[in-house]
Amino acid sequence: MIAKSGPLKGLNPTVAIWSKFIVFALVVFAAVWTETAGGVFQAIQDAILLALKWYYLAVVAGFLFFTIYLLFSRFGNIRLGDDHDRPEFSYFSWFSMLFGAGMGIGLVFWSIAEPIYHFQANPFIGEGTNIDPMSPDAAQTAMRLTFYHWGLHPWAIYVIVALTLSYFAYRRKLPLTIRSALYPLIGERIYGPIGHAADILAVFGTVFGVATSLGLGVQQIATGMYELTGMQFFVTQTDSGQAPSILAMMVLIAVISAIATLSVMSGVGKGVKILSELNLWLSIGILVFLFAFGPTRYILNSYIQNVGDYVGHVIPLSLWSNAHQDEGWQDGWTAFYWGWWIAWAPFVGMFIARISRGRTIREFILGVLLVPTVLAFIWLTIFGNTAIYLQLFENAGIVTAVNEDVTLALYSTLDALDLGFLTTIAATVVTLLIATYFITSSDSGTLVVNTLLSMGNPEPPMVHRVIWGLSEGAVAAVLLAAGGLSALQTASITAALPFSVIMIFMVIGLMRALREEVPGPGYAGRGRTVKGALKE
Question: I need a labelling partner for 86 at 20 to 30 A (CA). Which of 24, 178, 221, 313 fits?
Answer without folding.
Answer: 178
